Records
---
Amino acid sequence: MLFIGILGIVFLSRKARQFADPRYHCAPNLMPSKSFFIRLLLAVGLSAVAVAVSIVLQGPLLFPEHLENLRNPLETTIHRFCPVNDGTNAVVLLKHNSRVNLDAPATTLGIWNFSHGNCSLRKISTDFVTFNAVGARSGRYLFASSNEGRLYAFDRNFQVPVPRILGTHDEKFALDLACTYDGSIIIAASPCCISAWRTDVPGRLWQRHDIFVTSYCFYAQTNRLFCGVVERDGYEIDGLTGQTLRTFPTYCSIPVSIDVSPDGARLAVLNHDNAFFLIDLETQRPLWSKKFPTSAPGARFSPDGKRLITRSENDKPTLLVLSVETGQQLTELAGARAQIVGIAWTENDVVFAWDTSGTISTWNASSGSILRQCNTECLPTNPTSS
C-alpha cells in the first residue's frame, strides 16, 4: 500500500514537470482531462500513504503478540498436551521452528514429567515425523500419527517404548486423534473420513465417510464417542462398531470443540465463530451460552461435573471456572503468560493450560491458586523419567 502511494506521488511529480513545459500550453483542450487525472492520482496516492501509515502505527496496538513473534520467534511451541489423571505427567508433542534452529527436528514426542515439583522431558525416539499425538488418561498407552497417515501405538510399561504400527488412515493427515480412557480404542479423523483402531488387534475396526467430523471425545470411561459434525446434528457413535447410537443438536455450524460431562447429561460445544453453548442432552436445549471476542480453547468439565472451565471473555490470558447450571463465575485462574490455546482438567482437581509462549501453567481449581509454571525453552531432558 505504501509502495503504491509512493509510486503515485513520483508519477505526479514527473507530470508536474511536464506541465511546466510551454509545449503543453499549445493544446488547451487537453488541459481539463489532464488536470482531473492528476488530481485523481494525487488523491489515490495520498490515501494509500495515509492507510499504510495508519496500519504501521496501529499494528503494535492491535496485534502485539503477532509482532513480538515475528521479531523474536519461539524455538518450540506445544502442539498437543494430554495429561494423565493423576497430573504427574503428560504426553506432549512439541513443534520446533526451523527459522530459529535449522538443525532442530520438526517435532519432538515425549513424556512431560511434573513429579517432585520439577519439570523434565523424556523424549520418545521415532523413525518418522510425528504429525499428531494423544495419550490415554490411564497413563499406559500413547499414540502418534505420521505425515503419511500411519498410526502407531506405544506401551509406556516398557523402559524404551517402541512404536507398533496399527495401520494407515485413508486421508493421510489425521488432523485429530482421540482415545478411550484406557487406550483400548484410538480414533483418527480428517475432513472426509473417521476411522477406529484397536490397540491389541491389528487392522482397522471401522471407518465412515458419510459425516464431516470436526471435533469429538469419548464419554468418561466408555466406548461412546460424541462427535461434532459440520452443518448437521451431532452424532453419538459406538466406538467398537462405528454404528450411530443417536443424534443431538449442537447449535453450531462447525463445532471445533466438544466435551461431555462425567454423568453424560451435559454437552459443551464451541463453534468456529467462538460462540459457546452448554446443552442439556435430555431436553436438547441450551442451558446458557457465551460469545468470545477472539479464538478460544475448548471448554472442559470438572471431574465432578458441576463446574466448567473456559477462557475469560476479554483478551486477558485468564481462565474462568463457571457453574454448569447457571454459567455464573465461581473462580478466576490468572497468571498465564500468553494467549491460552488448550485446557485440561485432571481427576485430582488440577487445571492445566498451555499457551502460545510454550508455557504450561497449573492451578488448584478450587482455590484458584497457581501451582507451577514450566516453559519449553528451559525444559531439561530426562531419559529415565516416565
---
Amino acid sequence: MAYSTAKVSLMCSTIEGQGPQLWSVINSDSIATMMGAGYISDATKIGMRVGDLVFLSSGTFNTAVYPSSGASTAAVGEGADFTDTPPVRAVMQVGSIASGAATLTENLQIGAAATAKVGFHGATPIVQPAVLAAITTTQPTATVFGFTTTAQFNNLIAAVNQLIANQKSYGLMATA
C-alpha cells in the first residue's frame, strides 16, 4: 500500500511550539519502506518538523477496520488495526525534510545518562552496570589456549559471567 495521509495521526502537539511533536503512521508497507527517503511526502503540509518523533506500525490491515473500498464495518475501537499479532512497530525521528517530504532516522537514545534506569522484557529497570576491567594477555611462548597463567583464564571466565549477568539484569537474556 502506498503512503496515505489518512494513515497519519498527530498524537501529541507541542506546548507553545516548543519541543518535538509525536506522530503515528500505520501502513501495510514495511518499516524499511516507511524509512525510505521522502516517504512522508506531505510532511510540511501536515505540520511535521525535523526532530519530531514518529511511531511506525506495519502489518496486514484488518479489512473490517480498513476495507479496500466502502465504509468500515467496525466502529472505532471495535477491531484491531492489524491482523498480525503483533504488528511490527518502530520509533523513529524526522531526520530531514526536503521539498516538503520527511525522511525518518533511527536517532533514538534510551537512557540518556549512566544513572538513568532502563529495563527490557518486563525486567526491573536498573542503572548502567559498572564497567568491566579489560582482560589482558600476553603472547604465550608455550601455553594452552593462549593463557600463560590460570589467573588469566579465570579473569576471562569472570568477565564473560559478568556480561551474562548484565544481559539478564536488563532483561535482554532470560534468567532461567
---
Amino acid sequence: MVERDSNVVHRLREAQQRILMGAPERIEVGMTSVRGLAKEADVPLNWLNRQYAPEKDAFEAAVRGATDGPLTAREAELAERVAELEAEVKRLRMQSVERRDRGDAWKAAAEHFIREVALVKTELAGVEARRAAAFKARDNLKADRDAAVKAMQEAVDALHAYEAEMQPGHSWTPRVIGPDDRA
C-alpha cells in the first residue's frame, strides 16, 4: 500500500474548499481541474493521481455536484444573459458571413467588368488600327486613280494631236475627260 501523509490530505481538502468557494489562493478562480487542485494544494500532480486518488475522486465528484446542482437566481440570470449573448454572437456571425458573401459577389462582378473593359479597349485599339489602315488604303487608291486619270488624259491628248496631224484641215481642241463627260 502507498504511504499517505495526513498533512497532504489536509492541504488537499482545504484547497478543495477554497476552489469550490471561489476563493483560491494560488490559481485562477474557476479553475476546477485536478491540475488546479494539485497546484492550489502545492502537491505534485503525479502524487495526487497515485497516492491521493480518493481525494482526487472526491474533488471531481464535488465539482460535478457543484455544477449539476440547482442554480441560484443570479446564476440563472447570468445563464440567461449568456444564452442571449451567444444567440447575438451567432446572429452577428451569420450577418458577417452574408456581408462577406455580398462583398465577394461585388468583387467578382467588378473584376469581370474590369476584364471586359480591358477586352473592349484591346478590340477598340484593333479597330482603330484597321480604320487607320483603311483610310491610308483609300488615300492610296485616290492617288492611284488620280494618276491613272492624268495618264489617260495625256494619252487622249496625244491621240487627238496625232489625229490632227493626220487630218491637216481640221482644227483640234483638247477634250477633258472627267465626271461630267458623256462620251
